[in-house]
Amino acid sequence: MGIIIISAIALLLVLFSILLISSGAFMKDRYSEPWMNSYYKRYSDPRVQLAAHGILAPSGHNMQPWQVRLDPDPKIFYLYSDPNKLVPLADPLARQTLISQGTFLEYLQAAGERLGYKLEIELFPEGEYDENDLKTSMKTKPVAKISIQPDKSKENPLYEHLFKPDTNRSPYKDKELTSQEIKTLKEINNEPDLKLEIFQSDSDRKTLGEFAVNGAKIESSLKRINEESANLFRANEYQKNKYRYGYSVEGQGISGMKKHIMQGLITLFPAINSEKTSADLFVKSTQTAVDHTPAYAMIISKDNSRVSQIKAGRLYSRFVLKSHSLGIVVQPPSQVLEEYPEMKEQYEKIHAKYAKDGYTIQMFVRIGSPTSASPLTMRQDVGDILRDR
User: Fold this and answer.
1) Which one of 37, 53, 171, 271 has the largest count of C-beta atoms within 10 Å of its C-beta?
2) Residue range 245-254: average pLDDT?
3) Higher pLDDT, 11 or 247
4) Domain containing 66: what range?
């Protein structure tokens, strides 16, 4: 009997070791290094130091669609959209990609003020995109020209919050925002053509929760989008270190040993992460999230121009950072705002109720006090986004 027990234990240990090896549990997670607050010090060029902060910004689908070109003038650099980091099925108009350019720029701004630089940001210095040839325009036309000058007169109090995960998908506490918290959050909006609205009445929470769930149900039912998402899923540490962008189990709030067990199982038995399983889990987790959401927020623009999208992204970054400073977290259930045909009815309904007169909802987020912390997600090395010309 003793030999059988020892053999069984030995077999379990072997199986557990196989899971950990398959997960990559013994690898160094290079994809998390940019989250260290000393990471930028590896680089001497202040422009690269700033970009090393920018890569921590939120981005649609965690694509991190940024490229940076350093000018021969050491005080100038340029930001480009990366045409190889588009998600054309879920984001057919690349609206989320342009919002992500704005989030990057705002993280640059916060970092510049801490590191002792004044940033001058000029949008589309070589003209706006040709919408009929978007990928070529993204490759050839910069989103922004950034000029830096030494200036130690200003320090951004939100800097320390750059190093926190931007999204928390956990259930939130049943605790409304105070009037002072709402006032503090709304005061960050300095753009006359943008509106920042916060909703926490019972009727709004019910209505907006239904939009979030309906969006999740529609998106999860579409094979082409499920396949696009599956191609961006990084199942283990090997893939996460290779790609450093896209989705991973951390996106569902899984961390620690549970993460490695799940990654090992998915790597060894991919069928457990089938399209139906993933779709069902997505809808269920969305329902759980909205059932535990005390408030929602929206960033609404006067038009849907590329400049407005970028400005909305900058405001969203400020919103995330200011929320963190108040102990509040956010998550964008953004499916209902996506512009593919199957979402058209829900898209029009949410706009008819909350963004009339030609306004566009650029960001829709749930907000509240967290019940658990979020793990850090993959980030590229800053060297990966530098381009020669």
Assistant:
1) 53
2) 87
3) 247
4) 31-163+376-384
